[in-house]
């Protein structure tokens, strides 16, 4: 059967741009290669996002804009090949932008509920082999405007890198043509250097990293709940109406914590209530989450790739009081920031990329058995963006899960609002809409109860 992403959208003649002149094969990092090999039958390592716009889509202008901006990042015109036994990024000689952008011409307008159903269907599709690992589906008449489903394999970049790409694709107003702003242009950006530390300091840091890797490998598997059931591969993607960022930031300020601390505490509260409603014991051991932790300088985001660690956090799901949950979440996140655990998991992924594929899968399953959910917090564009003359009204992103994990919750900021998104295996969470509603309730509960002296 022909691959679902093989259909080509109408595009102007100049849309099929050639790869950047002089681009040569480049070695792939072992860490990115680990992500490249991490796709499984139940979990694809694809970052799914949906961009909602006002107004009708101007398909010719859209494709032309993307064709002249996205190839500024070589990873979007390259495929992965092994050369001399090592993985490399190699230019796709037959690259055609029209093979990566498909227009979905459904006859009926798509409500937000229908969009969520379509996202569940699209998220099942593997990206086309033999092509650069990304794809866009343009949906007409979606939510009162139009939508773009942007899917990028994790081996290309992480969340921070994807936001950099999005900023480069879009404009700060609706008047620009296809030429991007020079601000933040990947061809003009300069890498930010890290402070050089002594050989002794580096050796001590690596000893700490090794100790963390050892400790993580020896952790017992997470508490057995229905969130740790075998994966079925049936997926559902949901999102909530946006939260006002100023309100959440004020809550964090009142309690002397970070936005990420509030997010972790809200998820802990939602999971506690969800499991309790289903007759699960919640007052015993805490559930663990794999929380993403950025290790990249923002100025280097244009380089793409993956520069983050996954930290194992014991969520305070066993604590009934919401303010106490928030304090506990903040204390645990602060302790992790002062440790080498994020660097340890990044080193673990680099080592996994050196192993034969079966051993990588074994190591990954061992690691992911330690937690029940994945949490990510992405800082998106701070102000309204425009693509092909249309305003981007909402930006939602879903975090993929690896190995034995089947529940992922994402928090992304955009233009003064926060979008909460859930990506689950429905064999583990049979009522994902209820879990989403409880997450929203947990924010409201914290806002109502949190005070500096609470």
TrEMBL record:
Stretches assigned to the O-acyltransferase WSD1-like N-terminal domain: 38-262
InterPro entries the record matches: Acyl_transf_WS/DGAT (IPR014292), CAT-like_dom_sf (IPR023213), O-acyltransferase_WSD1-like (IPR045034), O-acyltransferase_WSD1_C (IPR009721), O-acyltransferase_WSD1_N (IPR004255)
EC number per UniProt: 2.3.1.20
Lineage of origin: Bacteria, Pseudomonadati, Pseudomonadota, Betaproteobacteria, Burkholderiales
Keyword annotations of the record: Acyltransferase, Glycerol metabolism, Lipid biosynthesis, Lipid metabolism, Transferase
Pfam family, one: WS_DGAT_C
UniProt-recorded name of the protein: diacylglycerol O-acyltransferase
Biological pathway: Lipid metabolism; Glycerolipid metabolism; triacylglycerol biosynthesis
Family statement: Belongs to the long-chain O-acyltransferase family.
Record has Translocase as a keyword: no
Superkingdom of the organism of origin: Bacteria
Ranges for domain O-acyltransferase WSD1 C-terminal: 305-446
Reaction catalyzed: an acyl-CoA + a 1,2-diacyl-sn-glycerol = a triacyl-sn-glycerol + CoA
